[in-house]
Predict the structure.
Amino acid sequence: MKEEEIREFHYVVSPSDAERRLDSYLSLASHLSRSQTQKLILEGRVRVDGKAGEKDHRVKAGEAVTLSLPAIQPSDLLGEAIPLQILFEDDSIIVVNKEPGIVVHPAPGHPSGTLVHALLHHCPDLGGIGGALRPGIVHRLDKDTSGVLIMAKTDEDLHHLSQQFKSRKVRKRYLALVLGRVDKDQGEVEAPVGRLMGDRKKMGVRTQKGRAALTRYLVRERFPDFTLLEITPETGRTHQIRVHLAHIGHPVWGDPVYGGRKKNLIFQKTGEELIPRRQMLHAWRLGFAHPRSKEPMNMEAPLPADFQEVLKALQSGFSENLREDKAIACTGSRHQKAEG
């Protein structure tokens, strides 16, 4: 391999990351997948304090980890002409307002039609990420969560943004419409989040291997049966907001996993019905430093049409005609416990 083709990245293990397996640590530090870091380690592209790394090596605080990425290769993913709501774009990053219902990246059950496919179509001259020609996913939103999402165009930009997320320098604000009337004007939920022992596809607070998590909330508007909250997640655990809100008895309305028995409350008024087709959760604002210029960036995504429709209905007094659709609400009720 030609010397100019090699791109090196350097990391120093922090005390909080000590004792992680090298492949796991590198995946978190670089935002590459675990399978990618394992492959790079086997190829001899990872060094620890100057020596070849082993994937099962337990890193120690202060160790210097060097990652050498290979030359950029074409991706086997094909771009698809999927509309994008672009909030900002330059040579380093692209920030979009993700629509609800679209998956961020290919996964089992979603081999196409993802945001990554849309970005590959939009950016045919995209830089290389992890050795492949593809956009760099810095953070993720659930399929049915809308809002601000940032992608990096090169390894260098991905590295800088990933470090901001890891060091909690990124400022995140969400809007959530939750069930019930939240009495306190503001508050916080501090409870570990991890995978449930009996259901590995769900997260919860009652878990033996939960990671510390903190979510702050502020009431923006109250309705008889609902509350609009502004959410600030201080940590970034999987499903953290949804789990924490369910844990305090105010799940996100329409959440199919953590919403509980009343996730499908329906409004009736003059023969009309209104029911959310997804969880009413929106990544509203995102603040970060530009990976190259270091200038502060503050992105805001307007509420999607379905969220606006629900809010307008609540503000017009729909909640006075609230009922529960028994047929729908009972679906999967055996699994909808108050456990977040």
Notes: The chain is about 20% helix and 30% strand. The CA atoms of residues 276 and 334 lie 21 Å apart. Residues 325-340 have pLDDT under 50 and may be disordered.
